[in-house]
Design brief:
62% of the residues lie in helices and 0% in strands. By secondary structure, it is mainly α. Helix 1 packs antiparallel against helix 2. It is elongated. The N and C termini lie far apart (139 Å).
Length: 424
């Protein structure tokens, strides 16, 4: 009897222990679900929903889920161990348990330092369809009114005083934005401190206001040049006996002129004077009429001089005369120059000395020259030798309008000339 009563007591104790364990776990699960559903109504000092943002709500939910998973694992582990202990109850009166599960109040009272250990990456992720609170909406950073990146300067005009004023001056922003790094440079400039002083400088040296837009469009880097350097370059040109009006005209037509240092300008002046054996007066005359010779490439100039001497067969003094009369020959397209000379010399039979005497013909349009010569040849009036009768000047041949050419040189009607052009 004693043995039977002892076994019965042990069975009752085991059943009561397992029952209390299951009841405790079921109570905890129901409590977690209740906390999850009724979470917004909890106001025990730790969770006041009205004062918490949606981000904090997600943090607490993450905390509860972590603790729920922890308790599930502990429960399953405890169940396995208790089944083993049940087999040994007949041999022992005391059942030892591992550390009890962490109570829910401990999870609720986790400190902020403990919260920082939670995986916040998953918590901080937002869904595109998720509703956010007013506090989160206020905390969203609003981008600057100026676009952070754009392919067009037009997007910045309304936000940048500098660009607005440049447009008013006539600057073509669509040309500048096609050049690398120019757009970002203009956006960094302040109109009052960077742009206005240089515009005043142009005004002081005599440049007209209407030319400001053209100068900046073709040379925006002028706005970054030091004012003292700009003044030094203007002073140098004046020291070489270029008048103030000439300097202003040169700057207006060759905007890059003021970007060249004094030493570089001096080297350019010396090159043209020595290469062409020109006097100081003729050198100033050429550069004043074509100021881009000072800031253009010297390689194209050297190449054209060789073409005139070697391919076209002009002498040094003839080249000098041609350049003084028509400086554009130095920068003319090589193919166009040789094509025009070939037609003049080999087809029209014009000698070198006549071309030198009327060098403007080298700068004329090839199509106009060809059509008018063939029309005169058709009429039997293509005579270009001044020693023979019915002489026709090369200068007038390429410079007169069509109507005057027909009435004074060809002695024909304009309609006849147009009909002849259709046969070419």
């Amino acid at each position: 009897m004693t043995m039977a009563s002892t076994c019965a007591q042990l069975c009752l104790r085991c059943r009561g222990l397992l029952g209390s364990k299951a009841n405790s776990w079921q109570h905890y699960v129901r409590h977690c679900v209740t906390m999850t559903r009724e979470f917004p109504q909890i106001s025990n000092g730790l969770f006041i929903m009205k004062n918490r943002t949606a981000t904090q709500t997600r943090l607490r939910w993450k905390q509860q889920m972590c603790h729920y998973n922890y308790m599930t694992a502990r429960y399953l582990s405890t169940e396995a161990k208790e089944s083993k202990c049940t087999d040994e109850l007949s041999r022992a009166d005391i059942v030892s348990y591992e550390n009890p599960p962490m109570p829910f109040t401990d999870a609720v009272s986790m400190t902020q330092n403990q919260l920082s250990m939670v995986d916040l990456d998953a918590v901080g992720e937002y869904s595109a369809l998720e509703e956010i609170s007013d506090e989160e909406a206020i905390s969203i950073s609003i981008p600057s009114s100026i676009p952070p990146a754009s392919t067009s300067l037009g997007d910045y005009v309304d936000k940048s005083e500098t660009l607005t004023k440049l447009v008013q001056l006539g600057v073509n922003l669509w040309k500048l934005e096609q050049r690398p790094n120019v757009g970002s440079m203009l956006l960094r400039l302040d109109f009052n401190t960077d742009v206005a002083p240089r515009l005043l400088f142009l005004k002081e040296i005599g440049v007209e206001d209407s030319r400001f837009g053209y100068i900046i469009t073709h040379n925006p880097f002028f706005l970054t040049e030091n004012l003292e350097n700009l003044q030094a370059r203007v002073s140098y040109l004046k020291s070489k006996k270029f008048s103030s009006e000439t300097v202003a005209s040169m700057v207006s037509r060759a905007p890059y002129l003021l970007n060249f240092s004094v030493k570089r300008l001096d080297n350019r002046l010396g090159f043209y004077q020595q290469k062409l054996n020109l006097s100081a007066s003729n050198t100033r005359n050429i550069l004043a009429r074509l100021p881009r010779l000072l800031c253009g490439s010297l390689e194209s100039v050297k190449e054209n001089l060789k073409v005139c001497e070697i391919e076209l067969g002009f002498k040094a003094n003839e080249i000098q005369h041609i350049v003084i009369a028509v400086p554009k020959v130095l920068t003319a397209n090589r193919k166009k120059l040789t094509q025009t000379f070939d037609f003049l010399h080999n087809t029209m039979k014009v000698p070198h000395y006549l071309i030198t005497k009327f060098p403007q013909v080298l700068n004329s349009k090839y199509l106009r020259l060809r059509e008018r010569h063939l029309f005169l040849e058709y009429l039997g009036k293509a005579q270009y030798d001044p020693a023979l009768p019915n002489y026709i000047s090369l200068d007038r041949l390429v410079s007169l309008p069509d109507e005057i050419f027909c009435t004074e040189l060809a002695l024909a009607t304009l309609e006849d000339f147009y009909l002849f052009q259709k046969t070419l």
